[in-house]
Structures are given as structure tokens and as C-alpha cells.
Inverse folding.
């Protein structure tokens, strides 16, 4: 397993574009800290985001994993191109001739995907911990380490998304088209969901129940948007006479759906490679 | 002698096209084999199948008597097919290091192999800056990294200039002299004739001949004849039992022998039957003519 990771690391290490994208990604995650300095001035009202409790433990785990997940596209580009470049350089052929089995090839790519997700999760943990220790109103150990399941969800979500990218890279063979396909898929999911919600199953939550099984939707549901959970937003909503009741917690079956997609994507990638003549 | 590779009724279909048809042959250790065939005859497909990149339709193949899985066996094989494929953003040495990692061999002999193909001074240049000839030589260096039991080369001189072709052939000859088994696919006859001891000829995916190169030349040769009375000459040749095919082309009559016959005997035979020749040449077919005859491409 280490050998396979070592091979992939060797391939990525010397690629300038991958290096730039990966570095940018991790630097951008640290920029979450910059949110702390966002200030609004509406006349007399002075509004500082950091004072609204976004960096309070344990809310910070939720908030940061949501924000950091938005940046996943950078790594997605790296993953899509690391798959499709093997085709365009025809190095996949040479790899197989040199004695890598098709199973090993897919495994090496998947291990890289998992490593990216894991690295990102660990990095996010460290950044959030430091930010929280600076800004959080509560710093008791038991509070700091509560709600950690958001990090697990973040990890699964990234792995799922990257596995999808990996499959698209193999399936489409060209990085630009693969990313385009990803975008089209996202639109398709939205359309199908929209049609179900407003046309077929009106006034019921059947549409939602079905949509949660879609690959991108299931990944999005893992870490829901955290903004409406803020006290300020909640009280503003209350004043307007509405109440926001949303389930922010992570359910085991949501994790399971995404894990299932990961298995499907990896297996499909393998099947595709096995069936294809290179 | 141990068998390195054995093919058994290997068949590959691409939709309605049969690229390889019931192909069987085996590769013994220590020989230099050539797979000869015109473009599109299924050479690369055959190699692709045994190298695990093309899926066979039916039949089977075995590496090293089938004691290992294909990808394990391939670690003991050095192969380059068609164009050299490397990572353009890596240097020569970095690319070879990667191959070492895949083949699970220590990277100690990278410099030695680069030296062998004359690329040591370019070891730290990026692959994308290489000329085609250099890329091809790097591919050979990469195929040799694990000191393979067999070296497979598919059209190694394709697209190279004369100097490049010369360099590659020299390298191949040098490798062959060390006792490494080589399988060389080519549509170039002289290439095969110069380096190979055995040859497999295929056309449209079918095997036409397989055996030693010198036995392939085992025909009895042919006569090139000229006489003022061509009709009589033709009639006489046809009645003679030693001749098979007779071709008339540009005033010269080419008569192929089916059994040995000396020029003197022929001359006597014709003269006794009242025909005087103005030209009589006996020739043996070159490998090229043999090949064209075998592949039915000779223009009669």
C-alpha cells in the first residue's frame, strides 16, 4: 500500500500545476481566519463577524468544515487531471506494461484520494482548533471536543466528492470535459430535484427523501449550511415572526449513502479500466 | 530451454474486425524473435494482449509457464510499445525512478542504463524537451531497468531519422549479444533479418510462418529469363516439372522453382528443345521478396 502511495506521490511531486493547486488549497483554508476580521459598518451599527460566535466551540467545527468544503474544487481539479493525464500522456499504458495491475492502479489513485481528504481534515482540525482557542468564548476541553462528528462528515464528504472526480477523470479521459461533466451533473441533479419537488410530489417531502440519495446531494447534506444556526440569525428570524427549524445533525444513514457512492465510484472506475482496451 | 511466453489460439475482435485470429506461438529463452507483418496486421494488438493493456476475446497466453500472474510476470519483462510514454514534466531520471518504483527494483542502475543508450548527459532534462530519437532511447533504458528476462520492442525505429535508426539498431544488437531474449515487432524486413534468429510472420491477424529466419529462405530460388521467342519459352517452362509459377513482366520471364535445378541443366534443356536464351540469371529470393510472397502482396 505504501508502495502505491509512493508511486502516486512521485507522479504528483514533480507536476508544477498540481503543486500550485494543492498549496493554494491549503493556504486558502488558513484564510478562514480572515473571516474573523470582516467588519460591517452600517451607520452607527458596528458589526464584527468574529463577535457573532462563529468561532465558538463547538459551532466552529460545523462552520469551518462547511466553509472549507467550498474550496474542495481546487483538489478536485488536481484529482481529475491526475486521472485524465494518465490517458492523455498514455502513461497508464506504460504503467500497466511496467507491471502495475489494473487493480493496483485504481487502488493507488483511490489511496491518493483518501490521503487528500485525510490531510485536508487534519489540516482543518488544526486550523479550527487554533482559531477556536483564540476567539471562542468557551474553552473547556469537553466543549472543545464535542460535535467532532462534523469532521468525520467532512472527511467522508471530501472522499466521496473526490472519488466521483476520480471516476469522471477515468470515464471522460479529458480533464476539462470531466470538470464540465461534473458541472452538468450538478445541474441535472438540481433540475430533477426541482421537478420532483414542485411538480410531481408537491406538498410532501417525498422529493427530499429521494434526492438525498443523489451523489452530489447526499454529499451536500452531510454538512449543511451553518449560517441559520447562528444566534443572531435565529433571533432576527424570530423577530420577523418565523422560526427556522432545521436538522443540522449528521445521521448515520447519510454517512452510509455517501460511503455507498464511494464504493460504487471506485468499483465503476475499476470496471471501466478493466473493460477498456488501451 | 525454458519457455518465456506461450500463446494459445489467441483471438481479438474489435467489433466486426478480427485483429488477431487463432494465433499460437511460443518464445524460448535466449533467442531473438521478430514479429513481422505489414501495418495493421495485428502485431501491436498481439503484444498489447500479452502486456495486459488489451483484453483478449478468446484463447490464452502464459508467461513463464503460467507460474505467476500477468502483472507479476510483467515486472520481469521490459517492453516498449508504439510511442514512448512518459510524464512530460519529469526529467529522464525522475521518469526512470518511477518505473523502478512500479517494477519494485532499486534505482541503482538508472545511470548505467542511461549510459547504455547515450542519454547520461541529459539525465536531468525534462522529458518534453527530448527529440523522438531520445524519447525512444529513454524508453529502451526504462525497459532495461530491471535487467529483464525478455525485452519486447514494438516498431522501435518507427519515425526515426537514419541516424536514430542506426543508434537504436546498435543498441538492440548490443543487448542481444548479452544473451537477453528479445521480441521485436516490425514491418521492416532488414531490421528483422539483421537482428533476429527466429521470425513469426502474420498477416491480418493470422500466422503465416514461424521458425528460424534462415529456414524461411528455404525456397529453391528462381530464374530470370529472356528470349526472342517468348511464347515458346513459356510453353517449355510450363512443361518442365521443376517450375511452379511463371511470371511475365517487362520482357523478362520470372520462373519460380519447386525443386532444385541448376542453370546449366536448364540451359541444356532449352537448347535441346530448340530455344536460345538471350539472358539467364538464377537468383535466390531476398527475405523481402519472401515476405511479400508470403503476405500475398507481390504484384504479379
Amino acid at each position: 500500500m505504501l508502495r502505491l502511495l509512493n508511486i502516486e506521490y512521485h507522479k504528483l511531486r514533480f507536476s508544477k500545476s498540481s503543486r500550485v493547486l494543492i498549496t493554494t488549497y491549503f493556504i486558502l483554508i488558513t484564510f478562514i481566519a480572515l473571516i474573523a476580521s470582516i467588519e460591517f459598518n452600517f451607520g452607527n451599527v458596528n458589526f464584527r463577524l468574529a463577535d457573532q460566535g462563529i468561532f465558538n466551540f463547538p459551532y466552529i467545527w460545523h462552520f469551518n468544515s462547511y466553509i472549507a468544503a467550498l474550496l474542495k474544487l481546487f483538489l478536485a481539479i488536481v484529482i481529475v487531471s491526475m486521472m485524465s493525464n494518465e490517458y492523455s500522456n498514455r502513461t497508464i499504458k506504460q504503467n500497466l506494461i511496467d507491471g502495475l495491475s489494473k487493480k493496483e492502479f485504481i487502488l493507488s489513485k483511490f489511496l491518493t484520494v483518501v490521503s487528500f481528504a485525510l490531510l485536508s481534515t487534519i489540516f482543518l482540525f488544526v486550523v479550527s482548533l487554533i482559531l477556536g482557542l483564540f476567539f471562542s468564548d468557551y474553552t473547556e476541553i469537553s466543549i472543545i471536543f464535542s460535535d467532532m462528528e462534523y469532521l468525520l462528515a467532512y472527511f467522508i464528504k471530501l472522499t466521496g466528492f473526490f472519488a466521483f472526480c476520480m471516476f469522471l477523470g477515468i470515464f471522460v479521459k479529458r480533464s476539462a470535459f470531466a470538470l464540465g461533466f461534473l458541472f452538468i451533473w450538478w445541474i441535472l441533479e438540481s433540475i430533477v430535484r426541482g421537478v420532483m419537488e414542485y411538480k410531481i410530489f408537491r406538498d410532501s417531502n417525498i422529493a427530499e427523501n429521494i434526492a438525498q440519495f443523489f451523489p452530489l446531494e447526499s454529499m451536500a447534506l452531510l454538512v449543511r449550511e451553518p449560517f441559520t444556526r447562528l444566534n443572531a440569525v435565529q433571533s432576527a428570524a424570530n423577530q420577523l415572526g418565523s422560526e427556522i427549524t432545521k436538522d443540522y445533525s449528521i445521521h448515520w444513514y447519510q454517512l452510509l449513502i455517501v460511503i455507498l457512492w464511494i464504493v460504487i465510484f471506485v468499483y465503476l472506475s475499476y470496471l471501466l479500466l478493466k473493460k477498456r482496451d488501451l | 530451454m525454458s519457455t518465456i511466453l506461450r500463446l494459445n489460439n489467441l483471438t481479438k475482435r474489435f467489433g466486426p474486425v478480427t485483429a488477431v485470429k487463432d494465433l499460437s506461438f511460443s518464445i524460448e529463452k535466449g533467442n531473438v524473435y521478430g514479429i513481422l507483418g505489414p501495418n495493421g496486421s495485428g502485431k501491436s494488438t498481439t503484444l498489447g494482449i500479452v502486456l495486459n493493456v488489451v483484453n483478449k476475446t478468446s484463447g490464452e497466453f502464459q508467461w513463464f509457464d503460467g507460474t505467476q500472474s500477468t502483472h507479476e510476470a510483467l515486472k520481469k519483462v521490459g517492453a516498449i510499445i508504439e510511442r514512448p510514454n512518459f510524464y512530460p514534466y519529469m526529467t529522464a531520471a525522475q521518469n526512470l525512478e518511477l518505473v523502478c518504483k512500479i517494477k519494485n527494483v532499486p534505482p541503482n542502475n538508472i545511470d548505467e542504463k542511461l549510459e547504455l543508450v547515450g542519454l547520461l548527459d541529459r539525465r536531468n532534462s525534462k522529458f518534453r524537451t527530448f527529440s523522438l530519437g531520445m524519447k525512444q532511447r529513454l524508453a529502451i533504458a526504462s525497459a532495461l531497468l530491471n535487467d529483464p528476462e525478455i525485452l519486447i520492442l514494438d516498431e522501435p525505429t518507427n519515425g526515426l531519422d537514419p541516424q536514430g535508426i542506426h543508434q537504436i539498431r546498435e543498441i538492440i544488437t548490443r543487448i542481444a549479444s548479452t544473451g537477453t531474449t528479445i521480441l521485436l515487432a516490425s514491418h521492416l524486413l532488414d531490421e528483422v533479418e539483421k537482428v533476429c534468429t527466429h521470425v513469426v510472420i502474420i498477416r491480418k491477424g493470422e500466422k503465416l510462418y514461424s521458425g528460424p529466419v534462415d529456414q524461411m529462405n528455404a525456397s529453391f530460388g528462381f530464374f530470370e529469363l529472356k528470349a526472342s521467342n517468348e511464347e515458346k519459352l513459356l510453353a517449355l517452362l510450363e512443361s518442365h516439372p521443376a517450375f511452379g509459377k511463371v511470371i511475365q513482366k517487362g520482357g523478362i520471364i520470372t520462373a519460380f522453382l519447386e525443386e532444385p535445378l541448376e542453370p546449366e541443366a536448364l540451359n541444356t534443356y532449352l537448347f535441346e528443345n530448340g530455344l536460345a536464351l538471350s539472358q539467364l540469371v538464377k537468383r535466390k529470393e531476398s527475405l523481402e521478396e519472401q515476405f511479400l510472397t508470403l503476405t500475398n502482396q507481390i504484384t504479379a
Remarks:
- Chain B touches chain A at residues 14, 48, 51-55, 69-72, 74-75, 77, 79-81, 83, 85-91, 94, 97-99, 101-104, 142 (CB under 8 Å).
- Chain B has two domains: 3-216, 222-284.
